[in-house]
Amino acid sequence: MAPPAPLRLEIDGGPATADGLRHLALVNYGHLTVMQVRSRRTRGLELHVARLDAANRELFGTGLDGELVRERIRHALGDDIEDATIRLVVFQPWDADDVSVLVIVRPPGGMPAAPQTLRTVGYQRPVAHIKHVGAFGQIHFGRAAGRAGFDDALLTGPDGVISETSIANIGFFDGASVVWPDAPLLEGITMQLLERTLAERGLPSRRRTVRVGDLASFDTAFVGNSGGVAPVGRVDDLTLPVDPGLVKTLTEAYESVPWDLI
């Protein structure tokens, strides 16, 4: 499904022109973050800023000022947009010494409440720890899963080692703790917020290798991204149990995270 049409696009605080977008159209190199904004606030703002700064240092050799990031988002929201989905992309045109910041403002979104269905595919994102542009593989497999009647693709490596979905982190509950895959993946903002908040509520998280063959051993599986948290009800032909109590705990933990003023 195509994303909603943008309400506004800006590059470096001004309207996004064809000239300004030319580099992104021709060169798939850059990094990004995606956030939900309500009343001009977002959850985990410091984590978004840290993600952008770290990725910028790795890709372009320099940090990215957090106040600049906030200013670009505020400017794109203007005085008329309170709630939105923000996609912020950082890239460096060939003829520029500094990076440029593209802010795409779309209508607000969320995670479906119904249990999600996932189709396993043998694919892992390159440079998986960075949320980067150039996502042909994950888009391709995500769309193929949709055509086959699934909500998303579950990315796996050799020996069926699970990493993430095409658009979300996946976690599991083993009866005592939340288990996150120990594999190449993006540590998403929602994943980080859940780890922190669940620990405060006495529910620890840990990393371990999880294979497709292990799925039946877990009490519940769930996915999380900027839209929120949802249980997983099926992977391929395997129906997974959904623990309503755990789903409630996850949802309440995420919704308890304060909204930071942008």
TrEMBL record:
GO molecular function, one term: transaminase activity
Record has Coiled coil as a keyword: no
Alphabetical UniProt keywords: Aminotransferase, Transferase
SUPFAM superfamilies documented for this protein: D-aminoacid aminotransferase-like PLP-dependent enzymes (SSF56752)
Keyword match Transferase: yes
Protein name: Aminotransferase class IV family protein
